Amino acid sequence: MIENVVEFFRNLPPKQCATCGEQFEEQHECYQTNCPSCSE
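Given the sequence above, the corresponding structure tokens read:
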């Protein structure tokens, strides 16, 4: 069962900014929806 969960997270699409739509690297300690440039 754990293999299915791991596979689920591997197949998630890249994180996209809610403002500009650019992809950005998601940081493990936060749930930001905006890229660093739009967050400023």
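The CA atoms of residues 26 and 32 lie 8 Å apart. Try to locate this feature in the token string yourself.
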